[in-house]
């Protein structure tokens, strides 16, 4: 990966991570993708469902789709409590215990925004003697609005109510040592890599060796992102999504992960082997891993009837669905592997 490609990809990541986009509220992220792809000279399409798809060209047959998702975890206001605090329901697998103390924005359905913080009930350690032993859950972690509200009527007067979105601050940082820390690297880091790849392709004037589509889905975290709008000639669907990093897995944040099997079952034999061969050819540091708790847009595409070969591949991400961490070396490895696998002519 050239330095210019890396810098451009990291810039896409910073910009995309700064746009709040929990599943169900992704229009701004989709608009950003449309704009970037149009600037590159492509003709992206926003689907009826809200995904962004673009055809990058290609020769021959056997189309390949690379799919990343730009929807993220988040929450929705479920009820306003009598004391003016907000009870929320998680969107996707947002975890109450690692989201406690995070800053949030409450985004009303008419687009107004209010600051707040996720806090466990009765959060002052000098007042609540049971604070340490309280098990955190969405029954007791609530939004404390940074507004002068004392009761439900005060909150209603602000126009906040059930069905409003709660955006969790991503806290994006890129360290001098190359670590990338942020919520929602899953899967905006991979989406940025796909944008970087599209820009690289345009710059270099290369044509993919087979028809190539990018699909930026918007309902992955709630389980049906990849279920719709697949091209009729599609032969292979690769989810470019976060690689797992953790106990007994080979992948680190500085590598690209190739998923041989996730919770739904094995990836396609040929696709896994093809990706391993491509990683070896281009020298990308990689690990082949089995993910214990993981479903992807590729699984969803298959479950919805697509007759495609499939796999999941992506940069290693530690502390997934929490305050996540990856590394520029993992970005480079993923970019290089995809570039090699796509095989430009
Ligand atoms: Zn993901």
Q: Care to give the gist of this entry?
A:
With 345 residues, this protein is of the alpha+beta class. It has helices spanning 3-17, 27-40, 96-99, 152-158, 185-204, 269-282, 297-303, 328-342, and strands at 45-46, 52-55, 63-69, 74-80, 86-91, 103-107, 113-120, 141-145, 165-168, 173-174, 179-182, 212-217, 234-240, 243-244, 256-262, 265-266, 286-290, 309-317, 324-327. The chain has two domains: 3-72 and 184-342, Zn peptidases (Aminopeptidase, 3-Layer(aba) Sandwich), CATH 3.40.630; 74-168, Peptidase M42, domain 2 (Elongation Factor Tu (Ef-tu), domain 3, Beta Barrel).
Key features?
6-stranded antiparallel β-barrel; Elongation Factor Tu (Ef-tu), domain 3; alpha+beta; 2 domains; binds zinc ion; 19 strands; Aminopeptidase; 10-stranded mixed beta sheet; 345 residues
How would you sum up this structure, described in words?
The protein has 345 residues and is an alpha+beta fold. The protein has 8 helices and 19 strands. It has 2 domains: 3-72 and 184-342, Aminopeptidase (3-Layer(aba) Sandwich); 74-168, Peptidase M42, domain 2 (Elongation Factor Tu (Ef-tu), domain 3, Beta Barrel). It has helices at residues 3-17, 27-40, 96-99, 152-158, 185-204, 269-282, 297-303, 328-342; strands at 45-46, 52-55, 63-69, 74-80, 86-91, 103-107, 113-120, 141-145, 165-168, 173-174, 179-182, 212-217, 234-240, 243-244, 256-262, 265-266, 286-290, 309-317, 324-327. The strands form 3 sheets. Strands 1, 2, 3, 12, 13, 14, 15, 16, 17 and 18 form a 10-stranded mixed beta sheet that branches. Bound molecules: zinc ion (ZN). Residues 69, 186-187, 220, 241-242 line the site of zinc ion (ZN). Zinc ion is lined by residues 69, 186-187, 220, 241-242.
């Amino acid at each position: 990966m050239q330095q210019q490609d890396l810098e451009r990809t990291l810039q896409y990541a910073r910009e995309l991570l700064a746009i709040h986009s929990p599943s169900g509220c992704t229009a701004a992220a989709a608009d950003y993708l449309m704009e970037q792809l149009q600037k590159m000279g492509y003709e992206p399409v926003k689907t009826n469902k809200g995904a962004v798809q673009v055809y990058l060209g290609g020769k021959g047959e056997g189309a390949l789709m690379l799919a990343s998702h730009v929807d993220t975890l988040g929450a929705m206001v479920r009820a306003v409590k009598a004391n003016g605090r907000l009870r929320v329901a998680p969107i996707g697998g947002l975890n109450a215990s690692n989201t406690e103390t995070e800053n949030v924005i409450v985004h009303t359905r008419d687009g107004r925004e209010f600051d707040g913080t996720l806090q466990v009930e009765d959060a002052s350690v000098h007042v609540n003697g049971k604070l340490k032993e309280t098990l955190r859950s969405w029954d007791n972690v609530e939004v404390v609005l940074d507004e002068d509200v004392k009761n439900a009527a005060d909150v209603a007067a602000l126009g906040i109510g059930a069905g409003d979105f709660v955006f969790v601050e991503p806290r994006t940082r890129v360290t001098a040592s190359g670590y990338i820390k942020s919520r929602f690297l899953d899967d905006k880091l991979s989406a940025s890599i796909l944008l970087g790849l599209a820009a690289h392709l345009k710059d270099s004037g290369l044509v993919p060796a087979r028809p190539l589509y990018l699909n930026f889905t918007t309902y992955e975290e709630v389980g049906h992102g990849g279920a719709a709008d697949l091209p009729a000639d599609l032969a292979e669907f690769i989810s470019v999504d976060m690689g797992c990093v953790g106990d007994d897995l080979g992948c680190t944040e500085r590598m690209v992960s190739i998923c041989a099997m996730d919770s739904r079952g094995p990836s396609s034999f040929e696709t896994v082997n093809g990706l391993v061969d491509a990683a070896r050819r281009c020298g990308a540091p990689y690990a082949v891993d089995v993910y214990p708790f993981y479903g992807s847009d590729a699984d969803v595409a298959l479950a919805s009837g697509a007759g495609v070969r499939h796999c999941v591949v992506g940069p290693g991400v530690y502390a997934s669905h929490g305050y996540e961490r990856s590394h520029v070396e993992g970005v480079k490895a993923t970019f290089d592997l995809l570039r090699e696998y796509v095989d430009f002519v």
